[in-house]
């Protein structure tokens, strides 16, 4: 099997691509506004290149410690997915509905099986946010279909 | 009396804080009895529920403070709560876009600030298609005319004539709160009409300009009457001229540019209220009437004057023309702005 | 004597004392929640003070200001969730101490340092306000540019693993700082047609994402392996630091308080800048700089003393010149004017009774904040005992609502999540998220300062910079900041050889 490349190689390449993409955007900018972005992006690409080189070196020397790092572990990625779903539902379902669903989902995911705890947490958070943000600070939380 | 009311408020707040503190831990089941107000009644009855007022700037800013002073008086007229929603960002256009997208039922209105609203769509870089025509104007609340000041111990410029003469041959740096701000446009108008060489040093927020002038880093303070009155009284700045059709009642000794013979160079920052186009006429009229009474309320006027702001009620054609004049002024210096 | 009795009468009445207590407690709650910064707390409660007696109202607002800055550190220490931008620097060492089971000690050090910092700044405000305010006028674009550069040199000492990755993270922060309308040309940079982005990437959602959401994701990793309770549960020990420990941090606290007061006085910089700068200075003066970032009490004392010292410092130019020294005081200006108190000389002559009462109330607020903090520390610390299954969802929800509440805008919530993902992967791959936050704060100051200087200098940049004494001092400081790590390394090596 081929040796696994160090993740720094990919990061370096990603940084360079990102810099190039952002650099192209400076074309539309007026002269004064473009100078600093160009400088910053060139530096970023340069660092990307250095990290790429460092990654190649690491790959050669085969650093076992780093090889074991799994960037996309199942659990954090699942939590992230739940968060993304939650955040994208806010405008649709309203803040309180989606927050309640989110708390239930995440607590179940964290292997909390006691229904009483889940319900109490959920009501506590909702009430706290309602009283502090909505009543006290007049923050307009998004309303959705239900609330 | 005041004390009693605020004391009650304070107590309530503490109770609330205590309550919120406990509830986060113990999480008692609350009995929610949020009864929605009965559904819409016949259409003549307006308003029947709270009206949202979008303020496109952050809480605590000038527009916000002005709104919070005015709204209690509007509440008295309309009999419903006026709820202020701060939607800052995009030089005001985040809030204005939201206002335009709101349901035109009269329950969402908002503050519009000129000339900011114009520079937001006249500058082609922003690619916006909404214009002032998309708003249903309600009334103007405040007009704050432009003023030119220098540091009190600046010996070079005793009068406005000194400043303009000097600026014709030398670069003079001026304060500005951003490209297309009223301060910036005023300096461009002068450059255009008088051949002066004012160069704006754009800075974020009013604090940068003021400290720049007081510290002697920037030559001329291009600001508004509301901003220079107090520093002038404190002896920190000398106001050379106001850019208004007539002298300001806050600065009766300061000449206008016009009376000094520099032509009709006016500059102002104004804020008023508008709704999205499409609000039923009878509802809009109810709102306009309420604002007319509230804005002309002498107690309200006094409070605004205390802040150094001049209240000027305008509605209908008069207000529309006022805003169109402002827009035309900016279009006139479009080339200088490079738009 | 007469003045004193009036002032004491104004403060020592039920009404004012209640307002004071409410400001302190409310401020601590607001500060402790992610996203609810001191600025927001003050802005949202100003309407409440409309009807209040001026002294009571203003004492409440200033109390909220200083208590919120302190409260932000509690959550930074205990759950790696800085409640305000000014407490991001505290999270580095504070959370490490909590992980070691010394959360109580961390809270104690933070409380003591905050109180001392705030107290000193209150004294400076009381005694030295007029002369100190003149300093703020000496600073303008060139000085701000250099201060920002000076602050950016901190990145070099902030990172422990890889210098290149640390600097790259800093540059990423600079890139994030590019987003928004360029103030000098009015051109919207990298806004991708979104109006919300025209005012730039909000610091708070970015910071919450990088620090707390990424932290929540890290926590999820441990989920499968061991399901038993974490070691953090050990929370014993005293809150107040031991005398020996206290003695060791006194120099740091005093140095940081002075830095905080000065940064506070400057209109262009606030608690966020001050906390980083003083952390860096503490590290530089320390005999064991390598201990920073692993959970050392100086790493808490420095930013904590500084960010609370900023509060009093920022009030100085506000009261004397009407020029706010920080974003929170910009909002406070509105609160003053509503009460008919126009900043300027009159505040110290005609309205001296009110002004000095407010200042003394502010000093009292700092002390009361310490009392509340020390009494409450035992209870705050219980947060770390709550099981992750309950705590993680709550923290994420608070991150969401906090990001939203800043501008009532859902886009800020999306940004928070994006930065959370970036932060998570950065931490997994050996980058540090702290330089991103630092550069996001300082990048725009540096760029605008430089370009404003070009205009101000009328084409003669070099001679303009060298004609300004403060600029020369700052340039020397920058050179020292860049060179000192190299020098220190050599020194250390030489020392080791001797051993």
In short:
The complex is a heterotrimer of chains A (147), B (339) and C (499). Chain B is α/β, with parallel strands linked by helices and 339 residues long.
Describe the structure in your own words.
The complex is a heterotrimer of chains A (147), B (339) and C (499). Chain A is mainly α and 147 residues long. Chain A is built from 6 helices and no strands. Chain A folds into 2 domains: 7-67; 74-136, no CATH class. Chain A has helices spanning 7-25, 31-61, 64-67, 74-93, 95-109, 115-136. Chain B has 339 residues and is an alpha/beta fold. Chain B has 2 domains: 51-144 and 268-337, 3-Layer(aba) Sandwich (D-Maltodextrin-Binding Protein, domain 2), CATH 3.40.190; 145-243, 3-Layer(aba) Sandwich (D-Maltodextrin-Binding Protein, domain 2), CATH 3.40.190. Chain B contains 12 helices and 10 strands. Chain B has helices at 2-26, 62-78, 93-101, 116-122, 160-169, 182-194, 205-214, 225-233, 281-296, 298-306, 316-332, 334-337, and strands at residues 51-55, 82-86, 108-114, 135-151, 172-176, 198-202, 221-224, 237-243, 268-276, 310-314. In chain B, helix 2 crosses helix 9 (281-296). With 499 residues, chain C is mostly helical. Chain C has one domain. Chain C is built from 21 helices and 2 strands. The longest helix of chain C is centred in the N-terminal third of the chain and has 36 residues, at 103-138. Chain C starts with a helix and ends with a helix. Mean pLDDT of chain C is 86; it is low at 226-231. Chains B and C meet through helix 1, helix 2, helix 3, strand 6 and helix 7 of B and helix 2, helix 3, helix 6, helix 14 and helix 19 of C.
């Amino acid at each position: 099997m081929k040796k696994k490349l160090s993740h720094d190689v990919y990061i370096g390449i990603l940084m360079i691509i990102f810099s190039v993409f952002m650099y192209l955007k400076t074309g539309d900018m007026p002269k004064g506004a473009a100078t600093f972005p160009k400088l910053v992006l060139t530096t970023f690409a340069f660092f990307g290149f250095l990290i790429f080189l460092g990654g190649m070196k690491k790959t050669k020397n085969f650093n076992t410690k780093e090889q074991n790092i799994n960037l996309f572990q199942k659990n954090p990625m699942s939590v992230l997915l739940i968060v993304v779903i939650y955040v994208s539902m806010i405008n649709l379902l309203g803040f309180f509905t989606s927050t309640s669903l989110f708390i239930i989902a995440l607590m179940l995911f964290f292997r909390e099986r006691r229904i009483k705890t889940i319900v109490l947490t959920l009501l506590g958070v909702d009430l706290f946010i309602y009283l502090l943000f909505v009543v006290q600070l007049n923050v307009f939380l998004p309303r959705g279909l239900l609330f | 009396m005041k004390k009693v009311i605020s004391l009650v408020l304070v107590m309530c707040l503490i109770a609330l804080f205590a309550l919120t503190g406990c509830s986060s831990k113990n999480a008692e089941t609350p009995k929610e009895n949020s009864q929605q107000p009965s559904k819409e009644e016949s259409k003549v009855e307006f308003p029947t529920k709270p009206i949202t007022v979008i303020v496109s700037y952050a809480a605590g800013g000038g527009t916000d403070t002005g709104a919070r002073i005015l709204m209690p008086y509007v509440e008295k007229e309309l009999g419903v709560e006026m709820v202020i929603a701060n939607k800052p960002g995009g030089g005001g256009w985040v809030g204005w876009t939201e206002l335009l997208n709101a349901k035109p039922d009269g329950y969402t209105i908002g503050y519009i600030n000129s000339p900011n609203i114009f520079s937001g769509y006249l500058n082609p870089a922003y690619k916006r298609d909404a214009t002032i025509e998309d708003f249903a104007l309600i009334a103007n609340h405040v007009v704050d005319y432009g003023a030119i000041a220098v540091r009190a111990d600046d010996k070079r410029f005793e009068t406005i004539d000194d400043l303009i003469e000097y600026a014709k041959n030398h670069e003079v740096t001026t304060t500005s709160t951003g490209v297309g701000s009223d301060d910036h446009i005023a300096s461009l108008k002068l450059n255009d009409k008088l051949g002066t060489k004012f160069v704006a040093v754009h800075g974020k927020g009013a604090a940068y300009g003021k400290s720049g002038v007081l510290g002697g880093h920037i030559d001329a303070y291009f600001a508004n009457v509301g901003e220079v009155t107090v520093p002038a009284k404190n002896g920190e700045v000398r106001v050379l001229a106001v850019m208004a059709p007539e002298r300001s009642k806050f600065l009766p000794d300061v000449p206008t540019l016009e009376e000094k013979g520099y032509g009709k160079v006016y500059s102002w920052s104004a804020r008023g209220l508008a709704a999205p186009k499409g609000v039923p006429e009878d509802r809009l009229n109810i709102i306009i009437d309420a604002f007319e009474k509230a804005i002309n309320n002498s107690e309200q006027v006094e409070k605004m004057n205390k802040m150094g702001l001049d209240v000027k009620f305008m509605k209908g054609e008069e207000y529309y023309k006022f805003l169109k004049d402002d827009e035309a002024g900016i279009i006139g210096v479009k080339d200088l702005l490079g738009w | 004597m007469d003045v004193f009795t009036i002032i004491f009468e104004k403060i020592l009445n039920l009404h004012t004392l209640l307002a004071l207590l409410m400001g302190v407690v409310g401020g601590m709650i607001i500060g402790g929640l992610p996203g609810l910064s001191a600025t927001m707390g003050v802005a949202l409660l100003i309407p409440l003070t409309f009807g209040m007696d001026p002294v009571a109202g203003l004492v409440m607002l200033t109390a909220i200001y200083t208590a919120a800055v302190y409260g932000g550190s509690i959550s930074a220490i205990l759950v790696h969730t800085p409640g305000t931008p000014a407490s991001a620097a505290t999270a580095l060492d504070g959370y490490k101490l909590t992980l070691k089971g010394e959360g109580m000690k961390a809270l104690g050090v933070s409380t003591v340092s905050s109180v001392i910092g705030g107290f000193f700044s209150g004294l400076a405000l009381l005694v030295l306000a007029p002369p100190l305010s003149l300093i703020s006028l000496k600073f303008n674009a060139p000085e701000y540019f250099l201060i920002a550069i000076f602050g950016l040199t901190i990145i070099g000492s902030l990172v422990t693993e890889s210098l290149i990755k640390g600097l790259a993270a800093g540059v990423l922060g600079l890139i994030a700082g590019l987003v928004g309308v360029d103030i000098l040309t009015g051109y919207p940079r990298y806004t991708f047609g979104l109006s919300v982005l025209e005012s730039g990437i909000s610091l708070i959602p970015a910071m919450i994402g990088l620090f707390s959401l990424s932290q929540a994701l890290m926590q999820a990793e441990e989920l499968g392996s061991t399901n038993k309770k974490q070691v953090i549960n050990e929370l014993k020990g005293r809150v107040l630091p031991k005398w020996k420990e206290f003695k060791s941090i006194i120099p740091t606290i005093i140095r940081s308080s002075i830095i905080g007061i000065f940064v506070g006085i400057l209109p262009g910089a606030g608690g966020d800048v001050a906390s980083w700068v003083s952390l860096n200075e503490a590290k530089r003066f320390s005999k064991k700089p390598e201990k920073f970032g692993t959970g050392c009490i100086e790493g808490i004392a420095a930013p904590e003393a500084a960010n609370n010292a900023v509060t009093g410092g920022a009030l100085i130019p506000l009261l004397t010149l009407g020029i706010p020294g920080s974003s929170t005081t910009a909002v406070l200006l509105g609160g003053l004017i509503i009460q008919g108190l126009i900043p300027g000389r009159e505040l110290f002559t005609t309205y001296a009774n009110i002004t000095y009462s407010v200042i003394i109330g502010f000093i009292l607020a700092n002390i009361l904040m310490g009392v509340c903090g020390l009494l409450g520390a035992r209870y705050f610390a219980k947060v770390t005992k709550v099981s992750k299954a309950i705590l993680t969802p709550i923290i994420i929800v608070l991150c969401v609502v906090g990001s939203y509440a800043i501008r009532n805008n859902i886009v800020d919530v999306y940004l928070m999540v994006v930065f959370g993902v970036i932060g998570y992967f950065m931490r997994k791959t050996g980058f540090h998220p702290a330089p991103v936050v630092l550069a996001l704060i300082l990048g725009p100051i540096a760029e605008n300062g430089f370009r404003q200087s070009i205009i101000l200098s009328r084409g003669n940049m070099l001679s303009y910079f060298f004609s300004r004494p403060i600029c020369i001092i700052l340039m020397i400081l920058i050179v020292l900041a860049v060179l000192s790590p190299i020098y220190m390394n050599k020194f250390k090596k030489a020392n080791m050889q001797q051993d």
